[in-house]
Amino acid sequence: MKVAIIGAGTAGLALAKMLIHQDIEVTLFEQAPTLDPVGAGLLLQPSGLAVLAHLGILEETQKLGAEVTGLTGQLPNQQRIVDSHYAQADSRFFGIGIHRATLCHVLTQSLANERQITWRFQHEITHLEDKGSQVIVKGHCKDQPFDEAFDATIIANGARSRLRPAQWVKLDKPYPWGAAWTIVPDCIYGDPKILHQFYDSTSMMMGVLPTGSLPSDPQKRLSSIFWSLPTGQFDTFAKAPYSAWLAKVQSRWSDLATCLDAVFKDNQPQWLNAQYRDVVMSKYGQGRIGVIGDAAHAMSPQLGQGANMALLDAWALAQSFSKARTAKDMDWHVVWQHYHELRHSSINMYQLMSRLLTPLYQSDLWWAGSLRNIMFSWMNQIPYFQKQMAFTVSGLKTGAFGQMNYDEIAKPM
Ligand SMILES: Cc1cc2nc3c(=O)[nH]c(=O)nc-3n(C[C@H](O)[C@H](O)[C@H](O)COP(=O)(O)OP(=O)(O)OC[C@H]3O[C@@H](n4cnc5c(N)ncnc54)[C@H](O)[C@@H]3O)c2cc1C
C-alpha cells in the first residue's frame, strides 16, 4: 500500500510515522527545499502530548521544550481574569511550550531511520486526480511538472491549502486580526512555567510563552512574545520604533515593560507575522482522499489547539486505517466513518468555541472586553468551571460533558 502525504508539518510528519508502523509505504511531499527552522512558539497541550507519547517521542520533546503548568491573563489594573492550571483537570497534566521548528525536528528525527518513507522536498503539489482505484498527485519540482499514482492521498498542507476539495469546504476566510511574534531569551517575566497573557479591552492583547530551545542550541532557553494586531497593521508595526510599543506596554504593565526593555536593550525586536484562517469542512475524507490538520479545520489560536488537533487527527486517522485494513485491501468507507466518530465532535466543539471567544480578545467591539472580564472572573471563582476550563485548554473535550481519554491515546504504537 502506497500513501502520499502532502505537507511535512506537524500533521504530515506524525501521520507518516504512524502509517509506516503499519507497514504502509509513505511518500511525503513538501514544497520547502528543507525543513527550515521557521516559526515561533506554540503550546502543546495534554491532548498533543498524549499523541507524542503514543509515538514514543514525548521524552525528547520534554527535553527541548519548556514545561508549562497553566496560563494566566491579567488586566492593566493587575486583576487576573484567567488563572487556569492543567492540574485542575488532572494532577498528571502539563503542557509544553515549544518552537514549531523544534517540534518538526523531533518528529523528523523519529523518521530518520525509517526505510519505508520517501522524502520529496521542493515538490509543490498543485492538483489531485481521484481515479477511483488510485489518486494521481500532480505538481512541480524546480519548475518541472511531474505526476505519480498512489493508493491514497492525505492532504496536510496547512491553513492556506488549495488542495482541499472545494465541494467539502463550508467556510474558508481569513481572520481580520493576527499577531506579531518574536523570540527572546528565556525567563523574562514571572513564573517560567506559566503562559502569561495581558489584555486591555479587545484591542490590546499580548503574551509571553516559555518555549525551550532550538535543536541547534539546546542549552539556550527561549521564550516567545506575541502581540495581537489587525492583519493590515503588521508592516507599520514591525517598522515602527520599538520605544512606541514599549511605551504602550509601560503604561499598562510596567513590570513587564521593565523586563522587555532589559531584553531588547534598544534593539528593534525581529517580528514574525502570523495570520489566521477560519476553515470549516462538511467532511474530512471520502474514498482515497482525506484532509487533516490546519488544512481541515484552521482556526484562530485563542485556544492554543492548532498543533494538538493536527496530532490528534494523525492519531485518529492511523487508528482508522488500522481498523479498516484487511489482509489485501482497505475499506475506505470504514476509514472515514471511524475517523469521523473519533474527530467530528471534538473538532466541532473547538471550532465553535474559537469562533465565539476570538472576538472577546481580538475585535473592535466596544462591549466585548467588559463581557469577557465579567464572565471570566466569575467563572474563575467556581471550581466546576475552573475544571471545565482546564479540560478545554487541555484539548481533550469532545462536547459540553464528554472528553477523550489521555491514556487511550497515549498507548504505545
Ligand atoms: C512556516 C510556518 C510557521 C508557523 N509558525 C507557527 C508559530 O510560530 N506558532 C504557531 O502556533 N503556529 C505556527 N504555524 C502553524 C502550526 O504549525 C500549525 O497550526 C500546526 O502545527 C498544524 O500543522 P499542520 O501540519 O496542519 O500544518 P503546517 O504546520 O502549516 O504544515 C503544512 C506544511 O505543508 C507544506 N505545504 C503547503 N502547501 C504545500 C503544497 N502545495 N505542496 C507541498 N507542500 C505544501 C508547508 O510548507 C508546510 O510545511 C506555522 C506554520 C508554518 C507553515
Shape: globular
Mean of residue pLDDT values: 94
CATH architecture: 3-Layer(bba) Sandwich
* Main β-sheet description: 7 strands, mixed
CATH fold annotation: FAD/NAD(P)-binding domain
* N-C termini distance: 19 Å
Helix content estimate? 25-40%
Count up the helices. Answer: 13
Radius of gyration: 21 Å
Uncertain spans, ≥5 residues at pLDDT below 50? none
Question: Numbering strands along the chain, what is their spatial order in the largest sheet?
Answer: 6-5-15-16-17-14-18
Q: What structural class do helix, strand and pairing data support?
A: alpha+beta
Keywords:
413 residues; alpha+beta; FAD/NAD(P)-binding domain; 6-stranded mixed β-sheet; 13 helices; 36% helix; globular; binds flavin-adenine dinucleotide
